[in-house]
């Protein structure tokens, strides 16, 4: 037990050990003095010599104490204690540092949480590294080159499923409009009740691929996934809980979904995560016809045991040979290849560059903050030169001084980091609040261990960054001059100016980037809408229902529901349309039957609409007439096209000249309406909003093909009102229920909501980058301010002398002020040069403006100049109050 | 007042192990207090070795902690309150090990330093 006694004795007996040590040293010196006196020295001489020969008592005691190990910890605790006292003594400095850190680390924490959730965190499925999805790479003339996640049609799906043995493949429907679920009478719930549910349509192997086992029952069987096979459903845990009261006997129950009976075959576990996040899952039953006739499906694949991705790629290449051959015949000289990529990468491909750009911007904020903090701590070290010199003279080693400063920095960084974590989590919550539902392809964004580690690492790194300069400075402190001149030397100004220049340059880049994004958003938001978005409420309902696959039932619903909406007091106009402006629409093919392009196959957005759709939206009819009640299934097929359609396909500049043209052999153009903004599906440059060729078809003339679009899209009921109507949404629901009691609305929207959803990406980018640029600006202003304020303080005496010698206040102000303004101007210039290179990377996210946008640059220059002047002027104005006589007397 | 640089008297510093060995050896002969230790080493080495008094106490503290020596407050013959150090069994073992390895090292050094034969 010796070791025990030796290690723990100090804990209890430390005080005594130290006292013994001090006492025996005292006795030692006393004995020596006595001996020296005995040898004939005077008392004073003896004392002096004894002490001299013994050495520095304090230091020897210290190193004696260090033998007991604990003192090391204790002396660090002492340093920490001292550091805390220093921090409390300068609350202004401490608060500035901590707030700066909290904001800059907070931004980094929030953005890193996103990056972590999107790019780093493993997908929440077993063996996520074996999950993948198929990409396609196009290259060659006349086609858009690049890589993108491919969608599959029915034929490709069959090939993938049956001829790629290296993979277990699963399919999901790209768009799903959901449907109504009737829960009445199944589990003893009283009364007819229909609710809207998010449904996910998946192939048989879907849950096997993502490695999910149902809590109750089983996954879909291949039989249930066969076209026209038995209809089966798997419930999410929450739907099972809410709609079926967690009925343990639910398996085998028949439920009424989308107007048809489905058999419940499974219930998912409570915490199940799927890429679709639906309330209820049904088997997709993909075939080569209908939906499967086009590339409307997305795939998820899992590598089978023993297989490699290379094998899978080779097999895919082979399986898709028919499609590849078709491509080569269409695009001679082009090249196409299909290959697998990890699922996570496939899902986040579009967000990846944005996430990384945001992370880089957050990094810039951190750099700016570090520059500021380095400047601030540098000033403080210079202020404490006297203290440092005194400690050095009293025997402190340079390392001890350094250690003290590092501990202070570390402590500040850790406190700042803790606050940063707080602000970061708040910022993250705000950010997630800003995002529309299902915007991110991940189930949750959380502050997990990796984020905590990141924040801790960033805090440490920050303390090193901003502590390095001042620490280097303390090593150069000249003992003699520091003690002799109590006045603080004006050193470090150059260094601080360089720091300001650097941070202003980075701020310029962030400001310009934010400016360009704002301009892009403004560009979209101020596009001529082509209709009046105010005073309209839209409600959506899913018509993916067995009942409405019949055109007559659909026509009846349209006319009766619109009539019922028109009965609501205060409603001026009402209509139904498959899609509204700002939304993604159905892209269909059609043939131009006359005019200069007769015989051409073209693609256009297709929207069915009831009469008064245009008047409800106040979309001007430029020529011809609106649909009428008389346009029915038995009469001449008619269509209304927008201006772009008329110009592009009939090559007429006057809308009236388009009237009477024929498409698809029999359909007669009866009107031309103004262009509106749509979320493009035709163009592949990802432009969020554009006005493109659109054809409107009367709802009463919709055929089976167009009714099939209800699988993907929910039509909108729109009403226009002059004055807000109390309880309008409830009244609309009642009006619809009067026609079909089983038809629930899935949601109510203003046209602005729709625009915001479409522009969500842009809005999020703008919000994030604006906050960051604002932060950078604030930090830069703080940096300039503290530089100049500090110079004013340091030079008060010099200014006093200059004023006494006849220099004017203005000259003194100019001299001091120019230090801040000069550094800022240089930074501005440097920043603009940086912009030339940095902003090029933004080209792909800018619309309606160029990368080098003069108004943006001008705004950046003006903003920065104004802030720099303000930050300089405030402290400089103090000079006017300098009283030469008093400053001189003070010394 | 300008600070004069603190210079050390020109003498060989003892390395840590050597000081420990001499302390232990001295204590093995008889228990002693710190001041007496300094005097003892000085005398035994015919004034060739000058123990820096300051370095003695940290060394004693280390040896106390490692249980090589024990200390006791006593009253000396001259009626002075002194802290007397005694070597422990562990101290004796440590000393013997150190001395033998030191001698080995010394032999080695001697061999290397011995004059080159013609």
What do these coordinates show?
The complex is a heterodimer of chains A (891) and B (118). Chain A folds into 4 domains: 2-68, no CATH class; 144-330, no CATH class; 353-525 and 760-889, no CATH class; 546-742, no CATH class. Chain A contains 29 helices and 24 strands. In chain A, the strands form 4 sheets. In chain A, strands 4, 5, 6, 7, 8, 9, 10 and 11 form an 8-stranded mixed beta sheet that branches. In chain A, strands 16, 17, 18, 19, 20, 21 and 22 form a 7-stranded mixed beta sheet that branches. In chain A, helix 6 packs across helix 10 (309-319). The longest helix of chain A has 37 residues, at 2-38. Chain A starts with a helix and ends with a helix. The relative contact order of chain A is 0.10. The model of chain A is unreliable at 185-191 (pLDDT under 50). Chain B is α+β, with helices and mostly antiparallel strands and 118 residues long. Chain B has a single domain, classed as Winged helix-like DNA-binding domain superfamily/Winged helix DNA-binding domain (Arc Repressor Mutant, subunit A, Orthogonal Bundle). Chain B has 4 helices and 3 strands. In chain B, strands 1-3-2 form a 3-stranded antiparallel beta sheet. In chain B, strand 2 (69-75) and strand 3 form a beta hairpin. Chain B is globular and about 55 Å long. The model of chain B is unreliable at 1-13 (pLDDT under 50). The interface between A and B is medium-sized, with 30 and 24 residues.
């Amino acid at each position: 037990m010796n070791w025990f006694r030796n290690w723990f004795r100090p804990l209890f007996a430390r005080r005594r050990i130290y006292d013994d040590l001090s006492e025996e040293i005292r006795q030692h010196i006393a004995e020596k003095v006595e001996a020296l006196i005995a040898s004939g020295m005077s008392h004073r001489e003896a004392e002096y010599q004894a002490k001299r020969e013994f050495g520095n008592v304090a230091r020897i005691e210290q190193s004696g104490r260090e033998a007991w190990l604990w003192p090391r910890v204790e002396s660090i605790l002492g340093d920490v204690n001292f550091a805390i006292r220093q921090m409390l003594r300068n609350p202004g400095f401490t608060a500035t540092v901590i707030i700066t850190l909290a904001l800059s680390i907070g931004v980094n924490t929030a953005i890193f949480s996103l990056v972590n959730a999107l790019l780093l965190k493993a997908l929440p499925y077993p063996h996520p590294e074996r999950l993948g999805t198929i990409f396609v790479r196009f290259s060659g003339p006349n086609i858009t080159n690049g890589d993108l996640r491919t969608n599959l049609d029915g034929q490709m799906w069959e090939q993938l499923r049956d001829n790629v043995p290296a993979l277990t493949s699963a399919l999901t429907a790209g768009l799903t409009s959901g449907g109504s679920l009737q829960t009445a009478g199944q589990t003893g719930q009283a009364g007819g009740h229909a609710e809207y549910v998010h449904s996910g349509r998946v192939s048989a192997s879907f849950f096997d691929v993502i490695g999910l086992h149902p809590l109750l029952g089983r996954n879909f069987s291949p039989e249930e996934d066969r076209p026209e096979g038995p209809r089966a459903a798997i419930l999410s845990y929450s739907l099972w809980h809410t709609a079926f009261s967690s009925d343990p006997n639910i398996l085998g129950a028949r439920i009424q979904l989308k107007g048809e009976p489905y058999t419940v075959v499974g219930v998912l576990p409570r915490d199940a995560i799927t890429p679709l996040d639906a309330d209820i899952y049904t088997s997709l039953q993909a075939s080569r016809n209908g939906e499967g006739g086009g590339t409307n499906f997305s795939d998820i694949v899992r590598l089978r045991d023993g297989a490699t991705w290379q094998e899978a790629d080779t097999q895919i290449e082979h399986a898709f040979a028919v499609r590849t051959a078709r491509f080569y015949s269409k695009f001679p000289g082009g090249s196409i290849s299909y290959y697998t990529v990890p699922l996570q990468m496939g899902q986040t491909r579009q967000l990846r560059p944005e996430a990384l750009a945001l992370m880089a911007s957050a990094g810039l904020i951190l750099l700016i903050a570090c520059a500021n903090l380095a400047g601030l701590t540098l000033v403080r070290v210079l202020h404490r030169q006297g203290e440092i010199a005194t400690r050095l003279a009293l025997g402190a080693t340079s390392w001890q001084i350094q250690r003290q400063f590092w501990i202070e920095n570390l402590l500040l960084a850790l406190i700042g980091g803790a606050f940063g974590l707080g602000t970061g989590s708040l910022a993250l919550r705000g950010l997630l609040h800003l995002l529309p539902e299902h915007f991110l392809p991940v189930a949750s964004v959380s502050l997990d261990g990796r984020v905590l580690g990141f924040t801790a690492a960033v805090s440490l790194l920050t303390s090193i960054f901003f502590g390095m300069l001042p620490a280097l400075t303390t090593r150069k402190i000249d003992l003699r001059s520091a003690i002799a001149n109590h006045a603080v030397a004006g050193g470090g100004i150059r260094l601080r100016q360089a720091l300001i220049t650097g941070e202003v340059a980075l701020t310029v880049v962030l400001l310009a980037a934010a400016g360009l994004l704002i301009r892009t958003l403004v560009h979209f938001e101020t596009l001529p809408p082509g209709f009046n978005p105010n005073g309209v409420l839209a409600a959506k309902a899913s018509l993916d229902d067995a009942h409405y696959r019949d055109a007559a039932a659909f026509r009846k619903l349209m006319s009766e529901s619109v009539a019922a909406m028109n009965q609501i007091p205060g409603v001026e106009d009402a209509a139904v349309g498959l899609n509204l402006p700002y939304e993604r629409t159905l892209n269909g093919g059609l043939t131009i039957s006359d005019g200069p392009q007769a015989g051409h196959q073209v693609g256009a957005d297709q929207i069915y609409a009831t009469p008064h759709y245009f008047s409800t939206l106040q979309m001007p009819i430029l020529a011809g007439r609106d649909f009428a009640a008389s346009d029915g299934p038995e009469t001449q097929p008619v269509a209304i096209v927008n201006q772009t359609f008329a110009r592009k396909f009939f090559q007429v500049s006057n809308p009236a000249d388009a009237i009477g043209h024929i498409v698809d052999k029999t359909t007669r153009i009866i009107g031309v309406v103004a262009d509106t903004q749509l979320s493009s599906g035709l163009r592949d440059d990802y432009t969020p909003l554009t006005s493109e060729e659109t054809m409107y078809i009367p709802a009463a003339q919709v055929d089976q093909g167009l009714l099939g679009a209800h699988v993907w899209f929910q039509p909108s009921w729109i009403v226009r009102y002059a004055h807000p109507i109390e309880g309008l949404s409830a009244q609309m629901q009642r009006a619809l229920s009067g026609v079909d009691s089983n038809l629930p609305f899935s949601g109510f929207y203003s046209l602005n909501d729709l625009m915001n959803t479409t522009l969500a990406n842009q809005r999020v980018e703008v919000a994030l980058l604006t906050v960051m640029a604002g932060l950078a600006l604030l930090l830069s202003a703080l940096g300039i301010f503290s530089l100049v304020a500090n110079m004013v303080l340091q030079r008060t005496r010099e200014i006093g002398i200059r004023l006494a010698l006849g220099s004017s206040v203005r000259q003194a102000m100019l001299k001091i002020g120019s230090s801040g303004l000069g550094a800022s101007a240089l930074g501005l210039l440097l920043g603009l040069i940086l912009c030339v290179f940095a902003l090029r990377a933004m080209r792909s996210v800018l619309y309606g403006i160029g990368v080098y946008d003069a108004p943006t640059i001008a705004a950046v220059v003006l903003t920065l100049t104004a802030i720099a002047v303000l930050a300089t002027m405030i402290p400089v104005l103090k000079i006017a109050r300098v009283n030469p006589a008093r400053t001189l007397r003070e010394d | 007042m300008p600070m004069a640089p603190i210079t050390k008297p020109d003498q060989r510093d003892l390395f840590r192990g050597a000081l420990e060995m001499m302390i232990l050896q001295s204590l093995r002969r008889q228990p002693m207090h710190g001041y007496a230790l300094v005097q003892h080493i000085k005398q035994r080495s015919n004034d060739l070795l000058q123990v820096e008094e300051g370095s003695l106490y940290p060394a004693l503290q280390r040896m106390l902690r490692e249980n090589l020596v024990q200390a006791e407050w006593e009253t000396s013959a001259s009626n002075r309150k002194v802290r007397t150090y005694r070597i422990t069994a562990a101290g004796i073992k440590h000393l013997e090990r150190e001395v033998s390895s030191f001698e080995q090292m010394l032999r080695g050094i001697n061999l290397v330093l011995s004059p080159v034969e013609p």
